[in-house]
Amino acid sequence: MLAAALLGGARPARALPAQPLVFPRDLGAHPGFRTEWWYVTGHAGSGGRGFGFQLTFFRSRVAAAQALASRLAARQLVFAHAAVTDLAAGRLLHDQRIARWSGEPDNPADLATASVQDTALALGDWRLRRAGDGAYHARLPASDFTLDLQLRETQPLLLQGDAGLSRKGPDPAQASYYYSLPQLAVTGALTLQGQRFALDTPGARSGVAWLDHEWSDELLHPEAVGWDWIGINLFDGSALTAFGLRRRDGSTLWAGGSFRARGGPVQPFAPESVQFAPGRRWRSPRTGADYPVAWDIATPAGRFAVQALLDDQELDSRGSTGAVYWEGLSELRDAAGAVLGRGYLEMTGYVAALRL
C-alpha cells in the first residue's frame, strides 16, 4: 500500500468517478494518474525453512516533465523495492531501484517501462509480468538475494471498496482504484547470498502470496501522517484486508478493508467498523521509530490479533521513495490464540509523516 513520495507534482484534487474496471487493460499501467503501485507479498518454505517475501513496483507521474519533447524526458519515475524475511536466520534483506520512463512505448532510451495493456513492468533487470497463461512471473536479482517466482491465481480477482473504488479519507478526492489477488500459489526459488532455496509445493499454510494494484491522484488527507494495513491469506482460503489512517496524535482518521470467504462474495468494511488497537512495540535501533509489532483488530468479520514473526522488518527506502516504513511477515490469530493465517503488516509514518 506504500505509494511513491511527492514526485508527481501538484495538481488540483479530483474525486475519482465510480466506473467499471476492465481487465486485462486495468492490470496494466495508468500513466495519466499521479501514482500507482503493484505490490506482492507472500510466504513460502524450503525444506522446513520459512521465508517471507515482498516486491513492489511504483510509478510516479512527474507533472513538470509532461510537456518536454525529449525522448530522454523523465515523464514518469519507476521505483521498485524487494525484500526477503529469513525466519531461521532472524534477518531481513532489502534492496531498491529507481529509473526514469518516458511514458512512450518502445523507447530505447528508457531505463524502465510499464505496459498499459497488462501487467508488464521492467526496471533494469528487475521484472514483473503476467504471461499468456495468466500466471505472474517475477525475477528480481538484488545485491544479496534473488527472487525468482511464479504466482498462479487460485481464486477470482477481488475488487476492493465499492466495486474497485476505495475511499482513503473523509474527502471524496482521497480514493484509489484498487483490486487484489489473494491466495496466489507460489513456486520458484529464492537465492540468499549465493545459496539457492527451491520452494516447496504450495499448500494452505505455505507457498501463498497476495497481489495488490492501486492507482490514484490523491490518497492522504492533510491530517493523516501514515497508515497501518494488513493483507492476510487465511488457511481456510479466506482473504482479509484492513487498514487505518492515523492522525499525528495516533487517532484514526479513516479506516476500511474487506473480507471474502473462499467461494463467497466480498464484504466491504465501513470506516467506523474497523478498529486498530496497538499492543507490544519494538523500537528500531537505526531510526528510533517505535512500531507496534502486535495489534488487536476489530472488523465486521471478527476480532483478530496480528503478530509480527520477526520484529525487525523495517525498510529504509530513502534511496528511492524517500520513506522509511515497517513491512513484514505476520500471523493472524483468533481470540483463543489459534493461528488462522499468514500475511503482511505494513506501518508507515512512524519515522516522519508520509506526504503523497
Describe the structure in your own words.
This protein has 356 residues and is mainly beta. The protein has no helices and 26 strands. The protein has strands at 35-46, 49-61, 76-86, 91-101, 112-114, 120-123, 126-130, 136-141, 145-152, 158-159, 165-167, 175-192, 195-198, 208-218, 224-234, 239-247, 252-260, 266-268, 275-278, 281-283, 290-292, 294-299, 302-308, 314-317, 323-333, 339-347. The chain is globular, with a radius of gyration of 19 Å. 50% of the residues are buried.
Please name the defining characteristics of this protein.
14-stranded antiparallel β-sheet, globular, mainly beta, disordered N terminus, 10-stranded antiparallel β-sheet, single chain, 356 residues
Name the beta content range. over 45%
Number of strands: 26
Label the structural class: mainly beta
Indicate the percent of residues in helices: under 10%
N- to C-terminal distance = 12 Å
Rg over alpha carbons: 19 Å
Whole-number mean pLDDT: 92
Regions with pLDDT < 50 over 5+ consecutive residues? 1-10
Number of helices: 0
Biggest sheet: strands, sense, closure? 14 strands, antiparallel
- The outline comes out as globular
